[in-house]
Design goal:
binds magnesium ion; about 375 residues; multifunctional enzyme; globular; 12 strands; ATP-binding; eight-stranded mixed sheet
Length: about 375
């Protein structure tokens, strides 16, 4: 058993998953009031000097509380506040981080702490992987998407003008700290986007979890702490388990791209930023379920359950009409494909997934029936 669930004694109601990757193993803790808990932070963060990397939206919300707690337990704390947005997940921001670290004379023992969503997490992780050939870092994800997806798995990086996430490294954090309280300020649309990846984790691997999400979707959207904790815990467990078996995406890890082939086509067809990634993935899962149904892999009830759940999560279920030719072109350029053939992650049945090529006629039928 490589993913162990440990109860924390020092933090009421917090749960810790230990991700076992040999000497790069690390704990993921999910709980409440973690950012202001001295005992917990003392136990979890070993470095003496910490540089917090965050952005202009998250800083006014959570920077003061975590920074003052770290100071109160004797840490030397400094901060770097970057501009907010995917468009700043770039080389200039990375250089801003390196410039700050060098001018502060940070050495190899300095730890970076990523306080924010996936953009901050990806950039900070990449900066940590490269600064002085690698310094420790801790993830404090503050969006649901970052808690259930981007903070787990070790992928870090930035965008290049010619492609998203094209420059990066595999680099594991020393710890992930997911505080459910930080989700209270998250806009509903961002919460729904994170729920897409939660639903994905159930659909591809865990039918029982999928059913649990169906039962609790209203509570999740209402930000009920206990429901959110469970969803984050299960998602991290599922993703960490897949990643542990395939850390560098040789095979199995591809199932985490369920809904993403269609989703990426929607994102790039409409122009990045029009739909959130999670919205495109939600809709992409509806299309992938339709395709699975046409191939006889899932029954009609399963297909309907997926559409209903995506809808209940506040996500779109009908795709924009990009035009057949554009759809095909966008899916063929998806970087996960080999030899120009389009591979899809499909459900067979709900709760299990396979990777397969599909007949073009069925794909076209799905596109025709699922788009506006
Ligand atoms: P994000 O980091 O842009 O956050 C979304 C918005 O919410 C931003 O405006 C952010 O400042 C704001 N925000 C963050 N926390 C908040 C809070 N608690 N309250 C209010 N507002 C808050 O986007 P995201 O969805 O978290 O992450 C998307 C990024 O993650 C993309 O760049 C994507 O490529 C990356 N990603 C990486 C992986 C991976 O494996 N490394 C996986 C999935 C996604
Ligand atoms: Mg995704």
């Amino acid at each position: 058993q490589a993913i162990k669930l440990i109860m924390d004694n020092d933090v009421a109601r917090a749960k810790t998953l230990q991700v076992d990757l040999g000497d790069r193993s690390y704990p993921i803790t999910i709980g409440q009031d973690l950012l202001t808990n001295q005992t917990f932070l003392q136990n979890r963060i070993k470095a003496q000097r910490i540089v917090i990397v965050t952005n202009t939206v998250v800083a006014p919300l959570y920077l003061e509380s975590i920074a003052s707690t770290l100071s109160s337990i004797g840490k030397q704390v400094e901060t770097i506040v970057l501009p907010d947005g995917e468009e700043y997940k770039n080389w200039e921001s990375l250089m801003t981080v390196f410039d700050a670290l060098l001018s502060k004379k940070c050495d190899r023992k300095t730890m970076l702490l990523a306080l924010g969503g996936g953009v901050i997490g990806d950039m900070t992780g990449f900066a940590a992987s490269a600064y002085m050939r690698g310094i420790p870092f801790v993830q404090v994800p503050t969006t649901l998407l970052a808690q259930v997806d981007s903070s787990v798995g070790g992928k870090t990086g930035i965008n290049h003008p010619m492609g998203k996430n094209m420059i990066g490294a595999f680099y594991q954090p020393q710890a992930v700290i997911a505080d459910m309280n930080s989700l209270h300020s998250l806009p509903a649309r961002e919460l729904s986007a994170g729920l897409a990846e939660v639903i994905k984790h159930g659909a591809i691997i865990d039918a029982e979890f999928f059913t649990w999400i169906e039962t609790n979707i209203e509570k999740l959207r209402a930000k009920d702490n206990e429901s959110l904790s469970y969803a984050v815990l299960k998602s991290c467990e599922i993703k960490a388990n897949v990643v542990r078996q395939d850390e560098r995406e040789g095979g199995l890890r591809a199932i985490l791209n369920f809904g993403h082939t269609f989703g990426h086509a929607i994102e790039s067809g409409l122009g990045y930023g029009k739909w959130l990634h999670g919205e495109a993935v939600g809709c992409g899962m509806v299309l992938a379920a339709d395709l699975s149904y046409r191939l006889g892999y899932i029954d009609y009830v399963s297909k309907a359950r997926i559409t209903r759940l995506v809808d209940a999560a506040g996500l779109p279920t009908v795709a924009p009409d990009l035009g057949e030719q554009t759809w095909l072109e966008l899916m063929e350029v998806d970087k996960k494909n080999e030899d120009g053939k389009i591979k899809f992650i499909l459900l067979k049945p709900l709760g299990k997934s396979i990777i397969t090529e599909v007949p073009k006629e069925l794909l076209l039928a799905t596109l025709r029936s699922s788009t506006l």
